[in-house]
């Protein structure tokens, strides 16, 4: 087995690279790729192996590349203004009125005047006064100028500025002042330098080996040494498919609740007002039900089929539930309750679950889109995701609800959680969970929570306390991804989607 040795073995590609580097000592990665006939990625990988083994040093340098800009390219083809001017005069062979020359050359007045001055200075033309105005008279024949030679060179292919002569550098300094003549671009180059000579025997020995159990046994006994791999070394960026960050976040929300023993329930986006509002003891004249806040569907009736439940909801709204509460004291309308809405909160889903499972204990959540008639800005969307949960327990309480919410939010990585008193028509007491953002240095309000009022639970025949909460997920996602504008989450700007780490 010639591929195995007790010394650090070389991969065939490493040998190839080393034999080239032994000739050049220092070279650019690109040149090493060219000379070895391997791809740049392959060569990068091999240099990385050799670097870990201590044979080469890898240094990134930047260099300035110079190229001809659009004006510069024109000059490379047709000459500088003074050359074009002198050529025009010489081609006439006699004195030319400056006025007609300016027209012929179609130069801007100031550029023309400057060109006349320089062509005179170079001894190519002379200016004479005549009755008909100023005349240009040909003198010596224009010769190519160093600046034109340089621009021709730059127009052919970009040049590393450090390789220019000092005369050329001085010219670049002058030409760069004219717009469009020279374009500068910085480029990073990776250089590889041989820092340790491999011994000849090592370069000769060895060939590729397939790892088998017997080799592994020899590795275990110390007879054979495997080369090490640095898994933290840089690799080329691959533009592979990736889950959208928001989808990743929603998945981690789901997984956190599932890991806490919750079950997911779902329901339609279009709901009756009955399940969205009435079943939640929200009076029919409540501001949240107005068109400015809620999207209604015209001419679509969502019938409520459980007549007995309808009767009890009507009663609790109109007169209360013999609990000392007297209800909202108005005439409840079934027609209003059967108007269809795009659900404004996922509480419509959990309350319906509760009605269908009134005698059971429960620990369920619902995650999905809700819709509100909002203007879009950095912190508002009119369509967003909500996470909603209910827990029905014999000893359910506000204290236990705080425990559930803290565990959930901490499971999502938010370390500091607090609760503030709040109000909702369907919970009593109510509170608003908040998380602390270290980055913003402030508390962020998430939504609502509380213990359902008897006016909600009793008409459904639910005897045990029901703890409930619901909040929007996009604002939380902003914190999670360290983003600033809620609209960014759905703009699908590829650079953002790519740069957000898969596991923040
Ligand atoms: N439905 C409320 C909202 O959308 C949140 C909430 C849910 C409040 C459950 C209390 C109980 O803001």
Structure in a nutshell:
The chain is of the alpha+beta class. The protein is built from 21 helices and 18 strands.
Question: Your description of this structure?
Answer:
By secondary structure, this protein is α+β, with helices and mostly antiparallel strands. Among the domains are: 93-143, Orthogonal Bundle (Arc Repressor Mutant, subunit A); 247-499, BirA Bifunctional Protein, domain 2 (2-Layer Sandwich), CATH 3.30.930.10. 38% of the residues lie in helices and 23% in strands. The chain has helices spanning 12-24, 29-36, 40-52, 70-78, 81-92, 98-105, 109-121, 146-156, 166-175, 200-204, 213-220, 245-259, 273-276, 307-319, 334-337, 347-356, 398-411, 454-457, 474-481, 488-491, 494-499; strands spanning 26-28, 56-68, 96-97, 125-130, 133-138, 159-160, 182-194, 263-264, 270-272, 296-301, 339-342, 362-371, 383-392, 417-424, 427-437, 442-445, 447-452, 466-472. Strands 8, 12, 13, 14, 15, 16, 17 and 18 form an 8-stranded mixed β-sheet that branches. A hairpin with a 2-residue loop joins strand 4 (125-130) and strand 5. Phenylalanine (PHE) binds at residues 345, 347, 424, 427, 447-450, 468-470.
